[in-house]
Amino acid sequence: MTGTPLIEVEDLRIDLDDGSRRVAAAEGISFRIDRGETFGLVGESGCGKSITALALIGLLRHPLSIGGGVIRFEGREIQHLSAARQRDLRGDRIAMIFQEPMTALNPVSPVGRQIAEMFVLHKGKSWREANQLAIEALASVRVPAPERRVRDYPHQLSGGMRQRVMIAIALACGPDLLIADEPTTALDVTVQAEIIELMRNLCAERGTAVLMISHDLGLVANVCRRVAVMYAGRIVEERGSADIFRAPSHPYTQGLVDSLPRLGSRAALGRSRLKEIAGVVPAISSFPDGCRFNPRCAQATEICRTVVPEADRLEAGGLVRCHHHA
Amino acid sequence: MKLRANLVIGGVLFALAVLVGLLAPWLAHTDPVLDANLMNAEEPPSWTWWFGTDDQGRDIYSRVVYGARVSLTVGIVSQLINSVIGVALGLSAGYFGGWWDDVVNALTNLMLAIPSLIFALAIMAVLGPGLTSLLIALGLTNWSFTCRIARASALSLRSQGYVQAATVLGYGELRIMVTQLLPNMLGPIVVIGTLGMGSAVLSEAALSFLGLGVRPPFPSWGSMLSDAREQITTAPWLSIFPGLAIFLTVLGLNLLGDGLRDILDPQSRSRRT
Ligand SMILES: Nc1ncnc2c1ncn2[C@@H]1O[C@H](COP(=O)(O)OP(=O)(O)OP(=O)(O)O)[C@@H](O)[C@H]1O
Ligand code: SF4
Ligand SMILES: [Mg+2]
């Protein structure tokens, strides 16, 4: 990890204004993604993955706001850029695809037009050129007969096809970073695998860095080179994907790994034992003091309930935020 | 798609009215203004004078045919002005919210509180009679309903996934409003516009009846009714035919509006995905 990273987040804090006071929905968020790198963000529902992504593209809206920290894109701070400058980055340099592929396309506009609009908007192409480029973009996401498909409306396409269109739109302008927020949760398992494979191949071919967000550690570790695990608004562990499975360091990550059904080694021993982590994720308003995982942690001691653990650098590479980490 | 009777009948009636207006010079038998001949005054309907003649001997049929031009121009143009104002205000209010929404809401409530015909009358009183004043008066006073619908649609559409996706993709506010919101609310807006045209045709008749419409002697259906009111017992054809023309046009527009509502129902359109 040398040179200027593509995107670098330092001690980011996201505030939630609940009317009377501001509470930190996420804090101490730090990570960096290099050019062409694949980086995963994993955690249970509500831990702050989506709001972190929205902060990166400058789209936190009331009651959420950036409460501190720095976001650098190619070495330049972007969190204070004007709305117009941030808009220029969005869709052009940083693109995002959504949790909800079913509703992310405009129902009354042909999909080709929606792809073409990106070229008109960000690359100043004429509609004629843009329509031609849209056909190529649709072909690149392996949609059959793209020259006919461009005229289709979203409701004429299957969920998988629609997500392909979304990928075509997101990658249309050749962004440097693609943020994929649970891009396949709404799809069938088989289609999921296809879409993930497609996204991974396209981004690898073009050198597009990926920030992949999911609650599925298995999926993310499979696709990404490095993974950060979030819990209740903090990143608790950041490791290489292989390491996180082999030797998870944070008790929460250990719980996550244990709860994954595993093929191979464990399955060979008989029935794989699935362990759920007992308890639930605390709400923002009732985050516990100290380590936020302490009410659910088997290894918690007194210090865990009072002192927030710092992010420790591991010898094997990576970071972990725990007083008693392995 | 099932073709509904109201859509077909309404469409045919409206298309007929438009066609008559467009082809007036070819359909009319005589010039509606110049061909006055007192020798033929107050002739009842016959093979020569299909709809009879008025007290100056002018052919009522030809005047009704030409009258379509005024009535439809007023109906279509004034409603277009209303639709543009209503959509611009309502869409932006619903999308942006905040103080702008409050301002638009207050304005809409004000417009709803004053009967639009009274408001139009007041404007006409200031501008004086004539076609342009009619268009302005009716075009500025009947947008509140469109505005309400556009605002409500924008409010519900702005949280749709594709609107958020567009924001994420770097669309500007105006582009989002024009490409993501407007096309998805067009159905109800068109329905209201069609119904509004009908009421504008009626308002034109009412204002012309009160002598505030187009200047005589050029015919409009309203002014023809107005001219005919003293002879309603002696020469009823003077009022019957322009009245029938108004009735059929407004009926056609209302049926068309209803029919469009059935097929453009936003429920079946935007929720389909
Ligand atoms: N607009 C908002 N207003 C108030 N609270 C919000 C808002 N958006 C998010 N939050 C809160 O911020 C926290 C983090 O939300 P976020 O959407 O980032 O979670 P997530 O990790 O993406 O979860 P999921 O897996 O369900 O998508 C949650 O507790 C959520 O309730
Ligand atoms: S800091 Fe303490 S409570 Fe938190 S994960 Fe580590 S051991 Fe558990
Ligand atoms: Mg989320």
- Secondary structure tally, helices of chain A: 12
Using a beta-carbon cutoff below 8 angstroms, give the protein chain pair with the largest interface and the number of residues from each chain.
A-B, 29 and 22 residues
- Percent of residues in helices of chain B comes to over 70%
One letter per element, helices H and strands E, the order of chain B comes to HHHHHHHHHHHH
Shape of chain B: elongated
Bound molecules: adenosine-5'-triphosphate, iron/sulfur cluster, magnesium ion
Shape by Cα distribution of chain A: globular
Unreliable stretches of chain A, pLDDT < 50, 5 or more residues? 264-273
The quaternary organization reads as heterodimer
E-strand count of chain A = 12
Order of helices and strands of chain A: EEEHEEHEHHHHEHEHEEHHHHEE
Which structural category fits the helices and strands of chain B? mainly alpha
Question: How many strands, which pairing sense, and closed or not: the largest β-sheet of chain A?
Answer: 8 strands, mixed
N-to-C CA distance of chain B = 18 Å
Q: How are the strands of the biggest sheet of chain A laid out side by side?
A: 6-7-8-3-9-10-12-11
Number of helices of chain B: 12
Backbone CA Rg of chain B = 22 Å
End-to-end gap of chain A: 24 Å
Radius of gyration of chain A: 21 Å
Give the overall pLDDT of chain B as a whole number: 86
Give an account of the 3D structure.
The complex is a heterodimer of chains A (326) and B (273). Chain A has twelve helices and twelve strands. Chain A is α/β, with parallel strands linked by helices. The longest helix of chain B has 37 residues, at 60-96. Helix content of chain B is 72%, strand content 0%. Chain B has twelve helices and no strands. Chain B is an all-alpha fold and 273 residues long. Chain B has helices at 5-22, 24-27, 60-96, 98-113, 116-127, 131-139, 144-157, 161-168, 173-209, 221-228, 237-264, 266-270. Chain A binds chain B through residues 57, 59, 87-92, 95-96, 98, 100, 102-109, 117-118, 121-122, 154-155, 166, 169-170, and chain B through 160-162, 164-172, 175, 179-180, 183-184, 186, 269-270, 272-273. Iron/sulfur cluster binds at residues 250-251, 291, 293-294, 297, 299-300, 304, 309, 322-324 of chain A.
